[in-house]
């Protein structure tokens, strides 16, 4: 970005992104300018294991290298055709009993005339579909940027070829392995076969499992597999074992090896007394199914020949309550993960076959990112809370408070702690410290009442190892900033421990920066809350005795999640669980998924998550296959909505929770109005879904929903609008914002309703909202849509109660994550999480209405860029689309002079909407009747003046003025715009 803009952010320097594997190949084309094919993925993932689709979908991106990013010759680049190439392993095409077939060079799949680069079916002659288990596939793609000439099918234009990506197929059909149980430690010795090509491990241990080969952990998954309704679906994980097996075989002389597994309760098992304290858990113990393949064939399976024991160092484990680990037991059973360990003792027995409900469920490949250890955070401070007087027997119990400075979903790792044998170290986790009104503030007492019955306590019993002891909990997770540690006889150093962050490992893909630090802090706070609640499903909170997949929370933040992270695979599989949970009798959806003890028909605005996430996958990712797969379920859901409407009409449309959690003392909006809003909002989302769906019945459903919306929209107004007062219902902000957002307010009263909303915010409530989680999302968006983004920005920048700034700048508990309540600092303890994402919709508003980036066609094929430049000196945004990064940089240079840098990747076009009205751009002086003179330049060339559009600049396809904006139509590429607005003092408007 031009330094003269006065606002410079190098996004690449601020990002920490994992290296993309198997991605970049560069070919010089078009006058030596470098273009490459990058970011190869299969079903949204890089080199995934366990692909369970016979014809998986692959994606790639066309990358213009940075040194040419400013060149106008690198605009409107379009892929004209592509050819996929597939390479399989030798056994992949052989007979089931023949692994000697040597086949497998690259197979060319034929040129396809298409600009499609995202979610392209991997169809390739006789190679596909992939209907065998455990096939290792490599693939790459060639593209051409020029069309065929003269229709002779002999295209000689340059070809750009990617590097190879790969994937491995899942288990197709039935398993050879059996579900086994009987102990939480399981082991099997075996003789290693030769690994000619590759080896694969398929495993599911529920609740959670860790697998080891000769004592070394396999993979890096944590709290695995992901949570499901275990009676219907159980995820299994797939690991590449090639390197591990080859290395272990090379380092042993007798070729004897051990696969061992340790199991935890997770969401599956209640465990032995006192139990896990988790709802709807099973009385059945943990269980395992495992299958090891070498060169595509099973060589080891779980069955009754495995040995099992309950003599585990993990003495207790619960997601809610924590974990107890006895290192003395680990010392006593040392060697159990090594060959030759004697299991002929009373503590070991043969495994038994499980008959639990999970054995009847479908085993499905967990084809989305696992939960991992993401990062580590060192303590900020360690404070001694209590230290008994020297010389007493109690001196061996010092209580210390550790502050990690960040509320997060994590566990605490003890690092090389020196402690005597039998010493018990207790770690109690908390989000905040005690303060009024809960008690006196002393800066050292943790507050845990908001955890309700969750104990959130880990215990480590020392073995007395003189080298020091390291411990990371295996089967639990907590939401905390503070940890109270007791039981040690010495004070801790900062280097003695760290917080290990845990969540589903979705990649951060997009970034947003402002010159106003408060907006940045709010954005960070929201994203921290989202990450803390991506736990194979999208939960509400990570700390108390709940942590459920609440649909209402996800409906409000699905857009910002998809804008910020790679959510395609995650949401695809959570949607499948929603389909599992759908009411078979009427098509309704529960309040949370997995459903546990949820009502079969959830509340409006909660059920909305199903259609909202489908809409997000369609709109943000351009995924049509998911619409086809869910067509029957989504149709059943809309029939359920229509039935609900027919039973009550709009005026009494059903509702349960309504606009949840408005700020006291303000009342909740009229619940039937919020229920009716959900009904109409779902109809609008459904209209978009069926408009984009390739299903043959989609046009019929589009007409049906359109007719229903057209019929019921006037009914909404008639039911809730008070002609006497000129407002909806009692005049609350939510009650005005929801119909304004829906667009159901008649033209003749729309402005007066908007004026009332603004007055209630600015005058009646001093620049504050009175809305709950639903109202605040659509209040911000309605204001922006109707041209009053300035009022929405004021709400975002507010720092007194109720506001996000109030959370951030709170006297006693300055937040690093979003509170559950506007007044969490004074409410509770029953419902008072400090790490909830349901008020996080403001972060999505920042992308859509401040940076102004929003998809107009599925998959960001066409994008709108309409920055809201009010009072902000600079905006820097990068949004990852399926085609590549969309970048917007804005800066205010001086009064009336503005700079915009815009980058659109190949595969994306855009409409750049440039504000030119005096009020919109705030140039710092009034025109007082004098006409404005507007000039827009791109890289120094005039493209718009008072005379209109000036053609001739590559990539700028057209322009037109609409009211107070100029609309510029852009092809892909990078642009530098300068916009100047001046007042002609010599002339007066006529």
> Quick check: average pLDDT?
91
User: How many structural domains?
Assistant: 5
Helicity range = 10-25%
Question: What is the makeup of the main sheet?
Answer: 10 strands, mixed
> Rg to the nearest angstrom?
30 Å
CATH class of the largest domain: Mainly Alpha
CATH architecture descriptor name of the largest domain: Alpha/alpha barrel
Helix vs. strand class: alpha+beta
Tell me the number of strands.
50
CATH topology of the largest domain: Glycosyltransferase
Span from first to last CA? 40 Å
Q: Return residue spans where pLDDT drops below 50 for at least 5 consecutive residues.
A: 1-32, 92-102, 920-926
Total helical segments: 18
Provide the β-strand percentage band.
25-35%
Indicate the overall shape.
globular
List keywords for this structure.
globular, alpha+beta, Immunoglobulin-like, 5 domains
Could you characterize what this model shows?
- Residues 508-850 form the Alpha-L-rhamnosidase six-hairpin glycosidase domain.
- Residues 199-373 form the Bacterial alpha-L-rhamnosidase N-terminal domain.
- Pfam families: Bac_rhamnosid, Bac_rhamnosid6H, Bac_rhamnosid_C, Bac_rhamnosid_N, Ig_Rha78A_N.
- The chain is α+β, with helices and mostly antiparallel strands.
- It has five domains: 3-169, Immunoglobulins (Immunoglobulin-like); 180-368, Galactose-binding domain-like (Jelly Rolls, Sandwich), CATH 2.60.120; 373-504, Galactose-binding domain-like (Jelly Rolls, Sandwich); 511-721 and 811-850, Glycosyltransferase; 859-983, Sandwich (Maltose phosphorylase, domain 3).
- Strands 21, 22, 26, 27, 28, 29, 32, 33, 34 and 35 form a ten-stranded mixed β-sheet that branches. Strands 36-41-42-43-50-45-46-47 form an eight-stranded antiparallel β-sheet. Strands 3, 5, 6, 8, 9 and 10 form a six-stranded mixed β-sheet that branches.
- The longest helix is centred in the C-terminal third of the chain and has 23 residues, at 698-720.
- The radius of gyration is 30 Å and the shape is globular.
């Amino acid at each position: 970005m031009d330094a003269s803009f006065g606002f410079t952010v190098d996004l690449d320097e601020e990002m920490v992104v994992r290296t993309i594997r198997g991605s970049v190949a560069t070919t010089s084309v078009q006058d030596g300018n470098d273009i490459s094919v990058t970011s190869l993925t299969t079903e949204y993932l890089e080199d995934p294991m366990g692909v369970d689709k016979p014809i998986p979908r692959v994606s790639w991106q066309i990358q213009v290298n940075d040194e040419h990013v400013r060149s106008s010759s690198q605009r409107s680049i379009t892929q004209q055709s592509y050819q996929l190439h597939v390479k399989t392993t030798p056994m992949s095409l052989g007979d089931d009993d023949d692994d000697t077939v040597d086949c497998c060079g690259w197979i060319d799949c034929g040129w396809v005339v298409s600009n499609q680069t995202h979610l392209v079916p991997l169809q390739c002659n006789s190679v596909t579909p992939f209907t065998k288990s455990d096939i290792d596939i490599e693939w790459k793609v060639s593209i051409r940027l020029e069309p065929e000439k003269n229709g002779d099918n002999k295209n000689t234009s340059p070809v750009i070829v990617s590097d190879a990506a790969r994937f491995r197929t899942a288990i197709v059909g039935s398993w050879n392995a059996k579900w086994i149980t009987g102990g939480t430690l399981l082991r099997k010795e075996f003789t290693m076969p030769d690994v000619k090509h590759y080896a694969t491990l398929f495993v599911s241990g529920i609740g959670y499992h860790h697998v080891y080969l000769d004592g070394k952990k396999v993979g890096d998954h944590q709290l695995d597999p992901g949570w499901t309704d275990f009676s219907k679906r159980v995820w299994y994980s797939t690991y590449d074992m090639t390197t591990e097996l080859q290395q272990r075989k090379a380092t042993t002389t007798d070729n004897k090896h051990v696969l061992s597994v340790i199991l935890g309760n997770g969401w599956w098992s209640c465990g032995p007394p006192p139990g896990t304290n988790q709802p709807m858990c099973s009385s059945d113990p943990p269980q395992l199914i495992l299958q090891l393949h070498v060169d595509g064939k099973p060589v080891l399976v779980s069955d009754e020949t495995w040995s099992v024991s309950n003599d585990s160092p993990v003495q207790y484990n619960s997601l809610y309550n924590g974990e107890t680990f006895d290192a003395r037991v680990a010392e006593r059973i040392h060697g159990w993960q090594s060959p030759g360990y004697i299991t002929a003792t009373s503590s070991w027995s043969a495994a038994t076959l499980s008959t639990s409900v999970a054995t009847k469920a479908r085993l499905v490949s967990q084809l989305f990112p696992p939960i991992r250890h993401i990062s580590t955070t060192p303590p900020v401070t360690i404070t001694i809370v209590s230290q008994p007087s020297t010389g007493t027997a109690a001196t061996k119990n010092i209580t210390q408070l550790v502050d990690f400075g960040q509320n997060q979903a994590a566990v605490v790792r003890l690092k090389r702690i020196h402690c005597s044998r039998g010493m018990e170290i207790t770690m109690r986790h908390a989000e905040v410290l005690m303060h009024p009104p809960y008690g006196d503030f002393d800066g050292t007492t943790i507050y845990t009442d908001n955890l309700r019955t969750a104990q959130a306590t880990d215990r480590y019993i020392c073995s007395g190892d003189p080298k020091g002891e390291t411990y990371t909990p295996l089967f639990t997770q907590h939401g905390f900033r503070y940890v109270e540690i007791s039981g040690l006889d010495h004070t801790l150093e900062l280097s003695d421990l760290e917080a290990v962050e845990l969540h589903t490992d979705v990649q951060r893909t997009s970034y947003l920066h402002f010159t106003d630090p408060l907006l940045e802090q709010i954005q960070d706070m929201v994203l921290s809350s989202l990450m803390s609640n991506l736990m194979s499903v999208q939960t509400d909170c990570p700390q108390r005795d709940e942590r459920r997949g609440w649909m209402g929370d996800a409906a409000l933040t699905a857009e910002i999640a998809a804008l910020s992270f790679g959510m395609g695979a995650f949401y695809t599989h959570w949607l499948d669980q929603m389909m599992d949970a759908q009411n078979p009798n009427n098509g309704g959806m529960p309040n949370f998924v997995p459903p546990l003890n949820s009502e079969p028909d959830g509340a409006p605005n909660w059920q909305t998550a199903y259609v909202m996430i489908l809409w997000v996958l369609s709109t943000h990712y351009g995924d049509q296959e998911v619409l086809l797969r869910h067509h029957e379920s989504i149709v059943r859901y809309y029939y359920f909505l229509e039935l609900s409407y027919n039973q009550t009409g709009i005026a009494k449309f059903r509702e349960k929770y309504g606009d949840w959690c408005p700020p006291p003392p303000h009342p909740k909006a009229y619940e039937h109005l919020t229920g009716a809003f959900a009904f109409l909002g779902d109809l609008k989302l459904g209209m978009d879904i069926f408009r984009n769906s390739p299903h043959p019945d989609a046009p019929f459903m589009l007409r049906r929903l359109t007719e229903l919306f057209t019929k019921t929209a006037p009914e909404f107004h008639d039911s809730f609008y008070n002609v006497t007062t000129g407002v909806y219902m009692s005049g609350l902000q939510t009650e005005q914002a929801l119909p304004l957002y829906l667009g159901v307010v008649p033209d003749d009263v729309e402005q007066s309703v908007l004026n009332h909303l603004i007055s209630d915010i600015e005058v009646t409530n001093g620049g504050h909202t009175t809305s709950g989680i639903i109202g605040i999302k659509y209040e911000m968006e309605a204001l922006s849509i109707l041209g009053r983004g300035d009022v929405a920005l004021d709400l975002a920048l507010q720092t007194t109660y109720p506001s996000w700034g109030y959370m951030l700048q709170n006297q006693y508990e300055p937040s690093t994550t979003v509170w559950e309540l506007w007044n969490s600092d004074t409410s509770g303890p029953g419902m008072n999480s400090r790490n909830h994402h349901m008020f996080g919709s403001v972060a999505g508003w920042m992308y859509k209405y401040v940076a102004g980036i929003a998809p107009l066609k599925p998959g960001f094929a066409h994008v709108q860029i309409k920055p809201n430049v009010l009072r902000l000196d600079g905006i820097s945004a990068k949004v990852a689309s399926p085609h590549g990064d969309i970048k917007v940089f804005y800066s205010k240079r001086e009064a009336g002079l503005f700079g915009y840098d815009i980058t659109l990747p190949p595969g994306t076009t855009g409409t750049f909407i440039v504000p030119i009205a005096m009020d919109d751009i705030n140039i710092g002086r009034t025109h007082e009747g004098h006409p404005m003179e507007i000039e827009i330049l791109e890289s120094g060339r005039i493209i718009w003046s008072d005379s209109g559009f000036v053609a001739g600049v590559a990539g700028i396809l057209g322009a037109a003025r609409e009211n107070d904006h100029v609309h510029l139509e852009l092809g892909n590429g990078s642009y530098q715009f300068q916009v100047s607005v001046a007042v002609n003092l010599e002339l007066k408007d006529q």
